[in-house]
Request: fold
Amino acid sequence: MKKRWLIYCIAAVVLLASLSVVQAQSETTVASACASAAVVTGASKHTLDSDGLAREYIVYVPQRYDPAQPVSLIMSLHGFASSDAQQVLWTQWNTIADEEGFIVVYPQGMGSPARWNTGQHPIPAGDAQQVEQETSDNPLAGLLAGFFEEVPVDDVAFLGHLLDQLETDYCIDPARIYVNGLSNGGGMSNRLACELADRIAAIGTVAGAYTELPGGCHPSRPVPVIAFHGVIDPIVPYEGNPDINFPAIQTWAADWAARDQCDPTPQVVEGTVGAVTGVRYTGCAENAEVVLYTIADGGHTWPGGFPIPFFVGKTSEDIDASATMWAFFSAHPLH
Reply:
């Protein structure tokens, strides 16, 4: 057990160190119609002003990036009480980015603990700064306030501003922008699908904590959705929790199938192995699709990713969520 924790600690130190060093080995300036600024490959930390708040994010640019060629963008959102750096580690998206040539961005939520506003109406930024200061002064009080007390900032606006910035800084294909997230980040991905469907081609969620949206979910177009959820998830129950308005995961998937005008009877996904089963809703409008993978022995973790060293259950190795998402995303550009 001590050896395993040592591995976790070493991995985290290496990750953080890599973000503090400017990786200039591949810095080039290329004049093109798409992007002409100098681009540094590898991982780098950035800050963006959004509604008067300094918002942070990590960008990963593969070495093979060509600023003259539009590439896909993957936005990956961390879970409650987690961070952008941890999301890098858990998901292993950067490895796939190196293989496939896309860019990954990992935004940082706000609050103490850090989280995403998945369902509340935003309030003015000045009030948000006051709330941020109060919770920072007493992290324990912020934690006890609960998972469901959202940080009152407009995260939809922030993530929209972030997309604007990334499309300025890099050569992003606007038809291939995809969002995914873990837990509370999965809930935020769900909200973005409802409210930014004109910019986001498809979403992916893992152990998603879905909360009711003000006015409901009314996307401007059918949105392709892929989700993964463990049956023995101790944080977000697979069967839902009516006391806190968590939907049953199968009901949530069926609701997306209805929004996307799919055939209401799902098909079994062939070729799954081990504890993984899957269903797929097809016949949807505008070539959308809804896929749900259920992991019988899965916990509140990212399947196929780096094991989360907390009391949140098993990390399945029977399916790679990031690789499976990428295959799904690749088949569903924005029309």
